[in-house]
């Protein structure tokens, strides 16, 4: 087969990603325009109102998103693969635990989820034993706790374990 006649690899197309991303950013921009107008996006007697700058940023964001959306729809060229299924699996192998980490911070604090995230990455993606991952994760969490909470006196989110320990 010639280079231009090869079938597109199975996966998410570049055009689909551009359309979804541009639509999402346009929606966010429209919300920004509405909210800026709600709080005042004009020029008052004492200068710009509080929504003036956000209004213009949202307008530029919406305009650029709509331009990207129209360009993606009008592009008549061959649709390229943006992401194949195996590549998506690699992305999700990072994104899923990272998302779980962020969500866990709300109820477990920062240190325990961080230790577990480090252990997970070491064991699942790095090929280390769970013992090495858990030991390293716990060590880094304890070092971070001592550094921020005790030495620098910077409070970070804490969970039940830190409360139980008296912090």
Task: Explain what you see.
The chain is mainly α. The protein has 6 helices and 4 strands. α1 runs antiparallel to α2 (52-74) and α4 (111-125) runs antiparallel to α5. It is flat. The mean pLDDT is 93. This is Tripartite tricarboxylate transporter TctB family protein. Keywords: Membrane, Transmembrane, Transmembrane helix.
Label this structure with key terms.
69% helix, 4 strands, 167 residues, mainly alpha, 2 domains, flat, two-stranded antiparallel ribbon, two-stranded antiparallel sheet
Strand count, sense and barrel status of the largest sheet are: 2 strands, antiparallel
Count of DSSP E strands? 4
Give the helix tally.
Answer: 6
Order of helices and strands: EHEEHEHHHH
Strand content: 5-15%
Helix content: 55-70%
Strand order of the largest sheet: 1-4
Morphology: flat
Radius of gyration: 24 Å
pLDDT under 50 segments (min length 5)? none
Number of domains: 2
In whole angstroms, the N-to-C terminal distance is: 67 Å
Mean pLDDT, to the nearest integer, reads: 93
Q: Decide which structural class fits the backbone.
A: mainly alpha
Organism: Salinarimonas soli
Keywords: Membrane, Transmembrane, Transmembrane helix
Pfam families: TctB (PF07331)
Protein name: Tripartite tricarboxylate transporter TctB family protein
Brief summary of the model shown:
By secondary structure, this protein is mostly helical. It has 6 helices and 4 strands; from the N terminus they run βαββαβαααα. Helix 4 (111-125) runs antiparallel to helix 5 (130-151).
